[in-house]
């Protein structure tokens, strides 16, 4: 499988799209380069949420490897996203080209770093890595395959997926999530949420026995995208997704003016629920400076 990224990751093909070496090589030859920003953390999150799930061809019994190829320093938190993958037993190899940040490559990659971190000065030099990287990858797969339990049935997609995401008790700063757990309880749930018009994704990890969560400290009057992913020992199940807008902050009402004098006026209004302070601006009409 392969995804490209800049500020918006894009799946080029899934793990299950091609079944022969020639098909994959032909797809690589036809690949169009995607320029732009370097949001590596968002890209790794995309791989976890979109590419490493049963619908995209991820097999429960298969070893999970991610090879990151980058030519720049990430503009978001790549380390946090990488740690989430590594905590799930997914091994990351980091390959830097040109302006890649070697310290960041070492943060993102799995141990031992002498086998998982590579850095070259320009793209043509990537060919020099192919032989060694191929041998290392094959060896790691064999090692991990020998350690992992392969007795898990393959066709368990519906068994691994929660259903019926409900979002309720929405306020200007919070919302409440509930869902029905899958028939096979997960080890953990990973909840990701962020504003639909752009913003840094935030995430919460929950014990697999819990199937509800209150999201708080949200921004008012903002549409949020919410995803709930079940996490198992060797795979991430299909996620639930929802979208809901927080309520606008309540406003003061019924503004009244009284007690006028030559240099003062008194204002009164009905309180805004939840307000802790008020800011009052006044100016001389029609275009005086505000005080």
Task: Give the number of DSSP strands.
Answer: 14
Helix/sheet category? alpha+beta
Q: Determine the mean pLDDT.
A: 87
Query: Count the helices. How many?
Result: 6
Question: Which radius of gyration do the C-alpha atoms yield?
Answer: 26 Å
CATH level-four homologous superfamily name of the largest domain:
von Willebrand factor, type A domain
Oligomer: single chain
Strand order of the largest sheet: 9-8-11-12
The CATH class of the largest domain: Alpha Beta
General description of the model:
By secondary structure, this protein is an alpha+beta fold. It is elongated. The protein folds into two domains: 2-148, von Willebrand factor, type A domain (Rossmann fold, 3-Layer(aba) Sandwich), CATH 3.40.50; 163-246, Immunoglobulins (Immunoglobulin-like, Sandwich). It starts with a strand and ends in a 21-residue tail after the last strand. Helix 3 links the parallel strand 3 and strand 4 (91-97). It has a four-stranded antiparallel sheet, with no helix packed on it. The protein has a three-stranded parallel sheet with strand order 3-4-5. Helix content is 21%, strand content 27%.
Brief descriptors of the model:
291 residues, alpha+beta, Rossmann fold, Immunoglobulin-like, 2 domains, four-stranded antiparallel β-sheet, three-stranded parallel β-sheet, 6 helices, 21% helix, 27% strand, elongated
What's the short version?
The chain is α+β, with helices and mostly antiparallel strands and 291 residues long. The chain is built from 6 helices and 14 strands. The protein has 2 domains: 2-148, Rossmann fold (3-Layer(aba) Sandwich); 163-246, Immunoglobulins (Immunoglobulin-like, Sandwich).
């Amino acid at each position: 499988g392969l995804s490209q990224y800049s500020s918006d990751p894009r799946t080029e093909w899934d793990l299950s799209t091609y079944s022969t070496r020639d098909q994959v090589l032909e797809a690589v030859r036809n690949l169009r380069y995607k320029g732009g920003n370097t949001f590596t953390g968002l890209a790794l999150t995309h791989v976890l949420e979109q590419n490493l799930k049963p619908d995209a061809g991820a097999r429960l019994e298969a070893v999970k490897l991610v090879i990151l190829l980058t030519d720049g320093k990430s503009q978001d938190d790549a380390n946090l996203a990488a740690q989430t993958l590594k905590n799930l037993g997914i091994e990351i190899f980091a390959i830097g080209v040109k302006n890649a940040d070697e310290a960041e490559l070492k943060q993102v990659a799995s141990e031992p770093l002498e086998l998982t971190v590579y850095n070259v000065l320009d793209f043509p030099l990537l060919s020099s890595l192919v032989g060694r990287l191929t041998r290392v990858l094959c060896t790691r797969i064999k090692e991990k395959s020998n350690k992992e339990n392969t007795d898990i049935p393959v066709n368990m997609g519906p068994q691994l997926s929660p259903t019926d995401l409900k979002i309720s008790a929405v306020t200007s700063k919070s919302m409440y999530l509930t869902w029905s757990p899958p028939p096979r309880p997960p080890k953990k749930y990973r909840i990701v949420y962020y504003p639909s018009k752009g913003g840094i994704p935030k995430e919460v990890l929950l014990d697999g026995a819990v199937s509800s969560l209150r999201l708080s400290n949200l921004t008012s009057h903002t549409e949020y995208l919410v995803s709930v992913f079940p996490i198992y020992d060797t795979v991430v199940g299909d996620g639930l997704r929802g979208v809901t807008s927080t309520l606008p902050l309540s406003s003061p009402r019924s503004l009244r003016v009284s007690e006028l004098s030559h240099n003062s006026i008194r204002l009164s209004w009905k309180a805004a629920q939840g307000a802790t302070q008020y800011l009052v601006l006044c100016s001389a009409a029609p275009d005086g400076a505000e005080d």
